[in-house]
Amino acid sequence: MSLAGWGELAALIIAIVATAPLLGRYMANVYEGTPSRLDRVFGPVERLIYRAMRIDPEREQRWNIYALSLLAFSAAGVLLLYAIQRLQGSLVFNPTNMVNVAPALAFNTAVSFVTNTNWQSYGGENTLSHFTQMVGLTVQNFVSAAVGMAVMVALIRGLSRAGKRTVGNFWVDIVRTTFRILLPLAFVFAILLLACGVIQNTHGFTTVHTVAGATQQVPGGQVASQESIKQIGTNGGGFFNVNSAHPFENPSKLSDFIEIYAIVIVGFSLAFTFGRMVKDKRQGYAVFAVMAVFWLGANIALPIIESGGNPKLDTGGVTQAVTATSPGGNMEGKETRFGPVSSGIWGASTTGTSNGSVNSMHDSFTPAGGLVTLANMKLGEISPGGVGTGLNGLLILAILAVFIAGLMVGRTPEYLGKKIQAAEVKLVAIYILIMPAIVMIGVAISTFVRSVVNVSIFNPGAHGFTELLYAFTSAANNNGSAFAGVTANTAYMNNALAVVMLLGRYFLIIPTLALAGALVRKRKVPATVGTMPTDTPLFVVLVIGVAVIVAALAFLPALALGPIVEQLKI
């Protein structure tokens, strides 16, 4: 990797370290209801919403009512977004005269955006009207991210409270998250992206004449506003078919840097939110350290791998060295304005979160590079993870780590003063096993489906298997990125991936809320000489080891059939 590449990564690290604690403290104040000068701005809006929805903000919910509220809200979102797509040809603000979306594709897209996956089996500029993009997709970009953060704060309350029965109020949490956190951040980042040249207009297609004398249709739309929340909320669904590789979404190295920063900043900041809410900042530092180790490892490995290129090209006399006219390395599927380093940093960050946006085509990464992106998702996207969901997964791994440590010394394990007993361990086991089961069952069934083998998979052998494995891993982890070699817009793939997205979202959320409900009832016990500290480097190493072992046990055989054997061939 070049000196400029190392400089870009260093600048990103500095930006994260400088701002994550500040944002984390602000979000903790929001969730704890700390009085703020901003109450004058947000307070009247929130009270108006509570009155309109008949919500008592002072009345909290038990975990099961919290879960039912969440499920009802999400179900309504799926139905509304599905209806908008199916009727978009008859709705307003459709300057490009888009027709109604087909049923299977509309179902897939509705589920995708409500579950914060943002998997796209379509080309946005050629399929969806401006009304669908703004009122349908962009709204879900906000509220689906807010749902993940609401579940996170419920789990934190379960750990921080003692002898209680409630974990908060879902409706209050989602309103506060949307209006006090996501909207202000999205506004700031939208302005920054506009300044970088990202487009924001209400145009349809504009006919232009090229220098060669041909004509071309240039799309317009509300891109900057959607791009900002797409990155901050770790959504990932782009306005255009090629996502952030499109120059209208990501025109320069500066916009690329800003968007990568936006992808990871909320996830890292939530570690500090956790530390403040449990009244122990050292716990937040420990969580941040685990996130940082995984994220930094992937962000060093992937750019180096892609900068090294394909060794088979060297034997053919093709130079992959950095020159004045070439960024060098593996440039297949990458934009020349970004090169392999920026593409690698983006790929590592987008799969370490549940973002899924791309500035290059992951299908064109080297096999080892594709393995890094797959491994990021198979770890459960905890580095730093999706907004809320990443911290949830990491805290559950931390609970598993203290349980394993307790078995080693023969005593009941404790985490933040709460005894971890059989009921909690069962919920942790369900959480950990659900995602691998969904992925592997989905891949296994799909390999026998004729339309998948004959239509959806373009490449034979190991690479084709990797494409299918990547698709179901992305869907189950609510990531949304894809290997471009998969044709997903078929009836089977649209419906199968939609089911996987639903299971991957809500079959993890429900055990998480149940765990919060179990923990919030427990009394805290004082630490003793036998209590394992959970804010030390030793515990950080233990959590990292547990995460790697769990992922390897679940997925190493499948990876050996795909990217590992493909890399060995070259």
Radius of gyration, in Å, reads 23 Å
**What would the average pLDDT be, to the nearest integer?**
93
Helical/strand content category: mainly alpha
Number of self-contained structural domains: 1
Query: CA-to-CA gap between the ends?
Result: 20 Å
Major sheet attributes: 2 strands, antiparallel
> Helical element count?
19
Q: Write down the secondary-structure element order.
A: HHHHHHHEEHHHHHHHEEHHHHH
Percent of residues in beta strands: under 5%
pLDDT below 50 for ≥5 consecutive residues: which ranges?
A: none
Shape: globular
Quick structural overview:
By secondary structure, the chain is mostly helical. It is 65% helix and 2% strand.
SSE map:
Elements: H1 3-32, H2 39-53, H3 63-87, H4 103-114, H5 124-127, H6 130-160, H7 170-196, E1 205-209, E2 215-219, H8 223-232, H9 253-277, H10 281-308, H11 311-315, H12 339-352, H13 367-378, H14 389-409, E3 414-415, E4 418-419, H15 422-446, H16 450-456, H17 461-476, H18 491-520, H19 537-569
Antiparallel strand pairs: 1-2, 3-4
What does this structure look like?
- The protein is mainly α and 570 residues long.
- The chain has one domain (3-208, 216-569).
- Helix content is 65%, strand content 2%.
- The protein has a two-stranded antiparallel ribbon. The chain has a two-stranded antiparallel sheet with strand order 3-4.
- Strand 3 and strand 4 (418-419) form a beta hairpin.
- Helix 2 (39-53) packs across helix 7, helix 3 (63-87) runs antiparallel to helix 4 and helix 3 (63-87) runs antiparallel to helix 6 (130-160).
- The longest helix is centred in the C-terminal third of the chain and has 33 residues, at 537-569.
